[in-house]
Amino acid sequence: MHFLLIYQVRPDYVTRRAEYRAEHLALAQQAVQRGELVLGGALADPVDGAVLLFQGEGPEAAEAFARADPYVRHGLVTQWQVRRWTTVVGPAAS
Fold first, then answer.
1. 38 near 53, Cβ under 8 Å?
2. 3-state secondary structure at position 73
3. Three-state SS at 58
4. Cα 82 to Cα 40: distance, rounded to the nearest angstrom
5. Which of 40, 42, 80, 86 is the most buried (most CB within 10 A)?
6. Strand duo 77-85 + 49-55: pairing
7. Which pLDDT tens digit goes with each residue over 11-70?
8. 16 backbone dihedrals φ, ψ, rounded to 5°
9. How many angstroms separate the CA atoms of 6 and 21, rounded?
10. pLDDT of res. 56
């Protein structure tokens, strides 16, 4: 199954994230290495959110990532939600 972790971010997110970026990316790489995180990145034009694609049996990995993410812990992310994504097309569709 696939799950989308959807972030809404502060207007000054781009300028404030530099302080926490290395820790955020390390957390993301660990999730990739565990096979949980497939893709992730900020939305562009405007940078007003981010989306991370997780895979697994349930939403727990995505939820744990959000709770541990320094962007969330330090208030750069104003809201987050995890949504199950029913994928039907593509080699990794479930």
1. yes
2. helix
3. coil
4. 13
5. 80
6. unpaired
7. 999 999 999 999 999 999 999 999 999 999 999 999 999 999 999 999 999 999 999 999
8. -85, -20
9. 18
10. 96
> For tokens 């995505």, what's the residue?
62
Query: What is the value of pTM for the model shown?
Result: 0.95
Predicted pLDDT of residue 94: 84
pLDDT score for 69: 98
How is residue 87 written in tokens? Answer: 């994928």
Cβ 92 vs Cβ 23: under 8 Å: no
Query: Cβ of 36: how many Cβ atoms within 10 Å?
Result: 20
Residue 61 and residue 75 in contact, taking contact as beta carbons nearer than 8 Å:
no
Structure tokens at 90: 């593509």
**Separation of alpha carbons 51 and 54, rounded Å:** 10
Q: Are 64 and 5 in contact (CB under 8 A)?
A: no
* Type and span of the H or E element at 13: helix 13-16
Q: What is the sign of the dihedral through the CA atoms of 2, 43, 26 and 81?
A: negative
Residue showing tokens 């781009």: 14
